Amino acid sequence: MFAIVEIAGLQYKVEQDQKLFVNRLKGDIGGKVSFDKVLLTVNGSTTIGAPAVSGITVDAEIVGHLKADKVIIFKKKRRKGYEKKNGHRQSLTQIQITGITGFDNKKEEKKAAPKAKKEAVVAEEAPVAAKTTKKSDSETAE
Fold it and tell me: Is 52 helix (H, G, I), strand (E, B) or coil?
């Protein structure tokens, strides 16, 4: 079971007990956050939102705040004496997905019931086919 959720403007594929880094979120370490903009869920069947799936939320816990590795931006123009060096460190938050909630189990039970009806219909049709073969056997014996 997984979901695609939008967190801080970016889309992530998340599963339960997964740890991931996202752009800095408000909240303290150990705090709980919930994301309700779920774009797609797969739980036996695929549910696609338009634009979001209603009733489903992704719950997470903030593990820590940190900074990413430094990225160096270096600009240079040959033979002009122009050089510019700049750096950037992105602020990140590490979260752990605690659960994906809001799935309706009643839909799964309804899907299981029609399969049982189809099996009963197939079982009733089987003896009819046996009777027709017996008639053909008796006709060939005469």
Answer: coil
Q: How many CB atoms lie within 10 A of CB 95?
A: 25
Q: If you average pLDDT over every residue of the chain, what do you get? A: 83
Q: Give the 3-state secondary structure of residue 67.
A: strand
CA dihedral for 22, 24, 28, 33, sign (positive or negative): negative
What whole-number distance in Å separates Cα of residue 112 and Cα of residue 66? 47
The one-letter code for the residue type at 118 is K
pLDDT average, residue stretch 114-133: 54
Which one, of 63, 58, 73, 45, lies nearest residue 15 by Cα? Answer: 58
Could you tell me if residue 112 is left (phi over 0), alpha (psi between -120 and 50 degrees) or otherwise beta?
A: alpha
Q: What does the pLDDT read at residue 141? A: 57
To 5 degrees, how large is the angle CA 75–CA 79–CA 80? 65
3-state SS, residue 128: helix
Amino acid identity, residue 50?
A: A
Write the single-letter amino acid at 25.
Answer: L
- Rounded Cα gap, residues 41 and 5, in angstroms: 9
Omega into 127 within 30° of 0, i.e. cis?
no
Position 29, amino acid: I
